[in-house]
Specification:
The longest helix has 18 residues, at about 175-195. This protein has helices at about 15-30, 45-55, 80-85, 95-100, 105-120, 130-135, 140-145, 175-195, 215, 235-245; strands at about 5-10, 35-40, 60, 90-95, 120-125, 160, 200-205, 225. The chain is of the alpha/beta class. An eight-stranded parallel barrel has the order 1-2-3-4-5-6-7-8, surrounded by six helices. It binds phosphoenolpyruvate. One of its GO terms (cellular component) is cytosol. InterPro entries: Aldolase_TIM (IPR013785), TIM_sf (IPR035990), TrioseP_Isoase_bac/euk (IPR022896), Triosephosphate_isomerase (IPR000652), Triosephosphate_isomerase_AS (IPR020861).
């Protein structure tokens, strides 16, 4: 796939009915070109959405993937093979909410990345610093430490989402200069440290909305967006997709 990638992260929102309606709204516009648009839905709705989106160019993504690859006694887990089985193309890995609330560290995330790739999923590694780390000036070191998992695998089929924690769900957006600086840093870090990463896509996430999407998506080294809150509103998400050149 070439061009920008926009993934809506529904997080722990929707119900079976509202998820179906939201997906239907995205599918509704017949004059669209959705290649490069994805939705990361709650795990329990993935199978139904996989059927609903089948044959469309809207890609399905999980919000997480198990660190365990093989079937077995891992209560509550969904393996990469299961996610692929119900139609997922992408798997978010290491979203800041997973790091914060579920203590996910690089060792676990590397296993998740490997499992996703082995099952044919494209892992989307989420990285980003907290406000304290941004203010302390250590954000590049923090992001580099999170990117380190990419040095342990073939990064050719991975996607990165840079999401400053202080901009997620807060309405605060990084400035264009801040985004440009860190995206250039990430691309450069990858070139130097991660085999196969020369064409790696780096998405921006953090309060991307209809109003700011165009400027963010036009920024150098921004290859798309990971959109939380605004992806729950079909009209807002449509405008963001338009800004990414995804709709005709
Ligand atoms: C996210 O959850 O990945 C995200 C970027 O959320 P929001 O757009 O709501 O800040």
């Amino acid at each position: 796939m070439t061009g920008k990638l926009v993934i809506g992260n529904w997080k722990m929102n929707t119900r079976a009915d509202s998820a179906r309606k939201l997906a239907a709204a995205l599918l509704a516009d017949a004059e669209t070109n959705r290649d490069g648009v994805g939705i990361a839905a709650p795990a329990v709705y993935l199978a139904a959405l996989g059927e609903q989106l089948q044959g469309s160019s809207i890609a399905l993504s999980s919000q997480d993937v198990s660190r365990y690859a093989e079937d077995g006694a891992f209560t509550g887990e969904a393996s990469a093979a299961m996610l692929a089985d119900v139609g997922c193309r992408y798997a978010l890995v290491g979203h800041s909410e997973r790091r914060q609330y579920f203590g996910e560290d690089n060792a676990a995330l590397l296993q998740k990345m490997r499992n996703a790739a082995a099952a044919g999923l494209i892992p989307v590694l989420c990285v980003g610093e907290t406000l304290a780390q941004r203010e302390a000036g250590s954000y590049k070191e923090v992001v580099a430490a999170q990117l380190a998992v990419l040095a342990e695998l073939d990064a050719a089929d991975c996607v990165i989402a840079y999401e400053p924690v202080w901009a997620i769900g807060t309405g605060k957006v990084a400035t264009i200069e801040q985004i440009a600086e860190i995206h250039a840093f990430i691309k450069n870090w990858c070139l130097q440290n991660a085999a196969g990463s020369d064409k790696i896509r780096v998405l921006y996430g953090g309060s991307v909305k209809a109003e700011n999407a165009e400027a963010i998506l036009a920024t150098k080294n921004v290859d798309g967006a990971l959109v939380g809150g605004a992806s729950l509103d079909a009209d807002s998400f449509r405008v963001i997709c338009q800004a990414a050149g995804k709709l005709i």
